[in-house]
Amino acid sequence: MSNPEVLEDFPEGGAGRPQTYPWTEWADEKTRKLIKGEHYSCTSESFRSLVHSIAKTKNMKARTKITSDKQAIYVAFYSKDKDDK
Question: HSE of 8 in the Cβ direction (CA atoms, 13 Å)?
Fold first, then answer.
């Protein structure tokens, strides 16, 4: 019997269904404009709520702004440390 492989980090993802959105990529502290129907399929209000929930799970915060026609949302994740400055 061989020894099990030892990993440096736990693999991305986890139990359950695969991620619907590329949160790791989007949480890189850059501002993005996400288009409804292209980048997300729910209402912009629901997506905004989801963004803030994901930020919390990543120990981050997020800024969001829905466009006036509600067909896009601006999203920027940022570290909580930036609030201290």
Answer: 0
